[in-house]
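job 3f2a | input accepted
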Amino acid sequence: MKGMKIFPLFATAVVLAGVCQAASEAANSARDAARQYGAAVRNCDMSWAVDSMYPPLRRTYADSLATRGREGEAARARRVQGIERENVVQARARMAANDKALRARYARMSEEMKKQGVKVESYTVGEATSEYVVTPPMAVVSQVRRDTAGRIRAEKIGNTQERSRIVVLPTTLVVSTPAQNGGRTRIERRSYIYAVRDEVIIDKSMPRGTELNKWYFIDGNTDVNMLRSFFPNLPLYLDLPGTGDRVLR
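job 3f2a | predicted structure (249 res):
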């Protein structure tokens, strides 16, 4: 849920990003998928937020959680510097353990919300405000390597270039919490989420953990610079919906 700061819930030379003028098929599909996301939000199901999170971002949060503290930071530094090497099996085991810890953290957050008497009364998803076609960073690097080696093949260019899509969806959340007078305080929060799907993947040697054409979600709390680390050619200025809170009576 937005407002919990531990973890949010939920360009290069050639710019491929564009803003949609009307609801496209992709935008409608993203909105439909987001409604399932909303069902989990209404149930305070934070574990579903982990399952639906864009996998590269999910790994980033899992690694961040695992490397908190001096011991974790030192271990990460040893791996980065090559002092402590790990094989594929060890790396996968470490990432699986990190992911398990992340899920456990979100599950505890769900339980804490319920114990505090937090109730999500409604969660609605509006029509998309913008839509961007982008290229993941490894696809850009892969293309540069092919260029440098002089091995560009026609089928790798144009419409077959690796492609992902981001759809910005406005959201409205109404939540209530126990008040000191014995009643409940109701707050409406207007925000947004990013719906992300990978549509064309050519270089499968570096898996992202995504299913082709499946929508994943990134909460609007996410730093846009982190978003650009996954999609370097995302425009500098995004068309985002208005946000804000207000107390309901």
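job 3f2a | Confidence is low (pLDDT under 50) at residues 1-21, 139-160.
job 3f2a | closed
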